[in-house]
């Protein structure tokens, strides 16, 4: 007799590389791969290396005083979410991070920190009523 395993949607391997979009108002949007790379946390802390211009994001418990909660968007439940948002306005203002236009950055893991290099290649992300448009920009 066969031993059956139920296939679940979340069992599909992630095919996209991790990306983080920093929106005009400082909100940070993480794709599903970036959220998974962090261990699918409920909250993160935001770090910054001003000399290298790299943002670091590390998973923390939601009870940590400086924790930023992550909320799922575009699907309702965490398993079905299209992306995850963190309100980073105070962070981007404090460190004078340019948010004049929304930009999507590739992200990489270094130990337990998701790193966003602000000097590297970025994609400007704009939207209008006719749909989303993107344009590649070199921010370095």
Uncertain segments of ≥5 residues (pLDDT<50)?
Answer: 129-136
What's the pLDDT, averaged over the residues?
85
What does the overall shape look like? globular
Structurally, the number of domains stands at 1
Radius of gyration: 16 Å
In whole angstroms, the N-to-C terminal distance is 61 Å
SSE class: mainly beta
Tell me the strand percentage band: 35-45%
| Main beta sheet | 11 strands, antiparallel
Oligomer: single chain
Count of individual helical segments: 2
- Number of DSSP strand runs: 11
Order of helices and strands: EEHEEEEEHEEEE
Would you mind describing this structure in some detail?
This protein has helices at 32-37, 89-94; strands spanning 19-22, 28-31, 43-49, 54-60, 68-69, 71-73, 83-86, 102-110, 113-117, 121-128, 131-138. It has 140 residues and is mostly beta strands. It has one domain (16-125). Strand 1 (19-22) and strand 2 form a beta hairpin. It is globular, with a radius of gyration of 16 Å. The termini are far apart. Mean pLDDT is 85; it is low at 129-136.
What order do the helices and strands come in, and which of them pair?
Elements: E1 19-22, E2 28-31, H1 32-37, E3 43-49, E4 54-60, E5 68-69, E6 71-73, E7 83-86, H2 89-94, E8 102-110, E9 113-117, E10 121-128, E11 131-138
Give a short summary of the structure.
It is built from two helices and eleven strands; from the N terminus they run ββαβββββαββββ. It is mainly beta. Strand 10 (121-128) and strand 11 form a beta hairpin.
């Amino acid at each position: 007799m066969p031993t059956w395993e139920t296939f679940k949607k979340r069992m599909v391997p992630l095919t996209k590389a991790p990306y983080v979009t920093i929106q005009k108002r400082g909100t940070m949007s993480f794709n599903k791969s970036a959220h998974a790379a962090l261990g699918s946390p409920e909250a993160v802390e935001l770090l910054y290396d001003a000399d290298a211009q790299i943002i670091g994001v590390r998973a923390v418990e939601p009870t940590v005083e400086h924790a930023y909660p992550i909320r799922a968007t575009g699907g309702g439940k965490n398993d079905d979410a299209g992306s995850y948002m963190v309100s980073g306005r105070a962070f981007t203002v404090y460190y004078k991070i340019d948010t004049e236009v929304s930009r999507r950055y590739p992200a990489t893991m270094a130990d337990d920190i998701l790193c966003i290099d602000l000097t590297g290649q970025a994609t400007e992300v704009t939207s209008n009523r006719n749909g989303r448009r993107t344009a590649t920009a070199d921010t370095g």
